[in-house]
Design goal:
Immunoglobulin-like; 3 domains; seven-stranded antiparallel β-sheet; flat
Length: 373
């Protein structure tokens, strides 16, 4: 007696895409299967499924892994560590399941085989035509091959990038090919996503001499146990003021961008409700307005702009579909601020024959606190 798995999610699979498991059973008669999913605290009951007329079972793990990876939502609640890297625990998931098949002959139900399976997931989503890259040391950002990445870093503002999955016995190092300087990422104790900080907003690799960066495109190579894994072409921009945002991208990590400091601001307000005042006056006594408002709700709207190149075009596409966008309260480099959640509106238009494009985005800040009845 055996269970044969014919379809399954391979690699570190995107949690927000369908992840089908298909299998057959060698049992005869009226059959069924039970699928047990870890952890028991979230899934105390087994899933009972039946085969189609061809004896094929199909089970989709998508909703299960989504629920586990979105327990804390999408907002980044991690605080900056004392070192240059940090384990992120809600991005990578190893999902264990077990399958047991049963048959029923003459009213007697008998269990057959049980198999234990394990699959890996992260908080990404893939679009039609995109592939799952077979490189656990890829960055959780935009790439055409899962090895080469192009990011822009604005000095003096918080900036980091995530490595999809690092194991607890890994030795990770980053080498700046421009300068030949190499340094190590330490303190890895669990198999999980690792966030590597380049700038903490008050200090960075250059100011602390950890891994100095030049004011150009720095080629950074990521090594695992002295073996090359990933290229990061990091474009460093000199300190300047502006509107700095962070968003959860479709690759399961966080991206950053600094918009120009010159903006267009608007205050959007709306009356909550009108109520009668009942002044009880005749015409010769001076008529007054018979209604008044109980107060207003309002929000501050900021329209910002920026120039972007071809690589940055790809980076910013995921901004417009992100479930979490945050604005840094400081508009000046090296001045500490806080991240606040905002709403975003806009239309992404790129002319591909241009080397530089202007992007416009409307940022809606949290609702104003107002006086109301």
């Amino acid at each position: 007696m055996a269970i044969t798995v014919t379809q399954f999610p391979s690699g570190i699979y995107p949690a927000f895409n369908d992840s089908y498991i298909s299998f057959t059973s060698s049992l005869t008669g009226l059959t069924k299967s039970e699928i047990t999913v870890e952890p028991d605290s979230l899934f105390p009951n087994a899933f009972l499924i039946y085969p189609n007329t061809n004896g094929r079972y199909i089970f989709n793990l998508k909703d299960i892994v989504k629920s586990r990876l979105t327990v804390s939502g999408f907002t980044d609640n991690y605080t900056v560590p004392s070192g240059w890297n940090q384990e992120i625990t809600n991005t990578y998931l190893e999902q264990n399941i077990s399958i047991t098949d049963f048959n029923s002959i003459s009213g007697t139900t008998t269990s057959g085989a049980t198999i234990e399976l394990s699959y890996e997931f992260d908080r990404s989503v893939k679009q039609v035509g995109e592939s799952v890259y077979n490189n656990p040391y890829q960055l959780l950002n935009t790439s055409e091959n899962g090895i080469d990445y192009h990011l822009t870093y604005f000095e003096g503002f918080p900036f980091s990038f995530e490595v999809q999955r690092v194991t607890d016995d890994d030795t990770i190092s980053v080498k700046n090919v421009n300068s030949g300087i190499e340094n190590y990422i330490t303190g890895i104790t669990e198999t999980n996503t690792q966030r590597i900080y380049t700038d903490k907003g008050v200090s960075n690799w250059t100011s602390t001499n950890f891994l100095p960066l030049t004011d150009t495109v720095n080629l950074l190579e990521l090594y695992q146990n002295e073996t090359f894994k990933t290229n990061l072409y990091l474009k460093k921009v000199n300190p300047k003021c502006g509107y700095y945002i962070k968003w959860f991208n479709q690759n399961g990590g966080y991206s950053y961008w600094l918009f120009n400091e010159f903006s267009k601001e608007e205050l959007k307000v709306k009356s909550l409700k009108d109520v009668a005042t009942n002044p009880f006056r005749n015409v010769n006594e001076g008529l007054l307005n018979n209604t008044t408002t109980i107060g207003y709700e309002g929000a501050k709207i900021i329209e910002v702009k920026s120039q972007v190149d071809d690589n940055e075009n790809e980076l910013l596409k995921s901004l417009f579909t992100s479930p979490s966008v945050q604005l840094y309260t400081s508009q000046s480099p090296y001045i500490s601020g806080e991240w606040i959640s905002i709403y975003l509106d806009g239309k992404y238009e790129i002319i591909n024959k241009k080397n530089q494009n202007e992007i416009k985005v409307i940022l809606e800040l949290p609702a104003l606190n107002t006086q109301t009845l």
